[in-house]
Design brief:
By secondary structure, the chain is an alpha+beta fold. The chain contains five helices and twelve strands.
Amino acid sequence: MPTLLTNMPVSPAHMPVVHAAQTAGWKVIKSLGGRLETNLGNALAIYGAPEIVRAIARVNRISLFAPPANWPKHLPTEFQAPDARGSTADEGISFDLAPEQGGFESTVRCFVLDRMVVTLSPVSHQGKSCRVRGKWSAPEEVYDQALSFCEQLLGDSRVLMPPAFALDIGQMAGGDWCVIGGTAAWCAHIYSCSPAAILNVLLRSCKSASVSHEEAQWLDE
């Protein structure tokens, strides 16, 4: 039986994932970040506030995987936002809280597992949040175009990426799509993504066993 570790108390933003884990029959452990006196096993996932997740991982010797902040600038130029091309900055662009302020026609969050999009959510469209009366939605073409762009990106062997993460993409004024940034799955806002689909992403975004050489490049710093 898989185990989900999360922070205590559970915030409303994280509750859908906790409920999905409980519905799937997972064991859920809530922690303030201390040492857990239990055998967690290898089927383990963490989700919650980043500072608590890192504290739980550190004291329990769990490895966390995440794309570095400068990941977008290492992508082939056709996938980069114009502002990132030729940039030497170490910080990537993030729209985790206010994507509608990023100057994109549309923005979308995707959860990626082994180079496949398992669930996605529109975040903003035409400068406004896609959340209306508590629900997230966008025109159908936004979903179709986002998935088409992700197929190109994730299918390109030149693109290196963690085994599991949250991918943020945007449509520019001219209609082309680009990568805005990557976010650790274990702390990423899900918007209207499927909580049940995210569970397997979370399982792959951390590891309590030894880390391979290929995985080591994606360790959260």
